[in-house]
Prephenate dehydrogenase
Amino acid sequence: MVVIGTGLIGTSIALALRGRGSEVYLSDRDAAALAVAAEIGAGEPLPAEGLGGPVDLAVIAVPPAAVAVTLLDAQKRHLAEVYTDVASVKALPLAQAAELGCDLASYVPGHPLAGRERSGPSAARDDLFLGRPWALCPDERTSPAAVEAVEGLARLCGAMPVTVGAEHHDRSVALVSHAPHVVSAAVAARLTGADDTALGLAGQGVRDVTRIAASDPRLWIGILAANAEPVADVLEGVATDLAVAASLLRDGSEGAATHVADLLLRGNAGRARIPGKHGGEQGGYATVTVVIPDRPGELAMIFQAATIAGVNVEDVSIEHSPGRPVGVLELSVRPEEAARLADELRARGWSVPG
Ligand SMILES: NC(=O)c1ccc[n+]([C@@H]2O[C@H](COP(=O)([O-])OP(=O)(O)OC[C@H]3O[C@@H](n4cnc5c(N)ncnc54)[C@H](O)[C@@H]3O)[C@@H](O)[C@H]2O)c1
Ligand SMILES: O=C(O)C(=O)C[C@]1(C(=O)O)C=C[C@@H](O)C=C1
């Protein structure tokens, strides 16, 4: 394989592929990004003179506006049999590739729905795509063999391939990724004028809502500009809800509170529709909460206790208590296994409230 663009996503794919035994060559116009990716074991730099023949697959992991020119260049060099990209929008690269005269039979537009708020190869992780959807947007011009190869890539990275048309993809991600990003930025932007007391009171809620606001604005302006209309449609709906909520709160009447409660209930309902682990139903798990001292080996012993109790931990999160040497661990498990795990942990001396 060849990975062109060794930033967060390209290097994460390269690491995942290397972990599955693939031979990976790397290319980036930024020599420092290439050097870091190679240094952390993502692959070998692609020799300037090429490899003497096409590799199976080239993954183009550059910003959306650079995908089509990068594809054309790679195809001119006959770098690979099959090409895919990972850009967060799909209609733009596909239209530009057609306009530039790229070979569309061997190009499968793709988009793994996994990422981080950090950029560059040093933020890469080989497990980034585990259990995540990976959109593929072939059309009537794409060869079935190319689609099969890129489905194989997604599966090798531990992701679930999902086939969807490019326009449909872009409208969908406007709703589930791009508009939420702008909303997160808008909430975080309110904090620039906050005083130290307010910031000192920041808890997990604001951290959850603003995590993605730490992302690279240069990358995101390219994503938003390439999906402008669908994102604007969602933002207008959000803006209406917010404006109505603000005016009702000022109104202060009991009727107004009921209307605001309606927005909160719709929020509950929307959130509950987000699929859970492996695309399954969300909310099917019970949470076992454990207070853990901050000392070596504590987590390992808790997971060992879960193993002994025969309980599979489906998900895990840790909340740190600021200034205190303890944390609160939340273990998501099947509801029928929660009491067994709680008993096992209590018997071994941990504090399991509830
Ligand atoms: N960040 C995310 O969470 C995320 C998730 C899924 C998909 N994506 C998509 O993946 C792509 C890469 O994003 P990233 O987060 O890895 O960004 P990044 O900034 O970490 O990496 C991009 C890399 O591409 C290189 N690059 C830029 N233009 C190039 C060109 N013309 N030729 C060769 N290399 C070039 C840069 O030097 C950089 O190393 C984007 O299209 C983005 O939309 C991002
Ligand atoms: O979790 C994050 O940090 C992301 O930015 C991931 C996320 C997303 O919105 O889910 C962002 C953009 C990508 O195109 C794909 C995934």
Observations:
- The pocket of nicotinamide-adenine-dinucleotide (ligand 1) is lined by residues 4-10, 28-30, 33, 61-64, 66, 70, 86-88, 111-112, 115-116, 119-120, 219, 223 (CB under 6 Å).
- The mean pLDDT is 94.
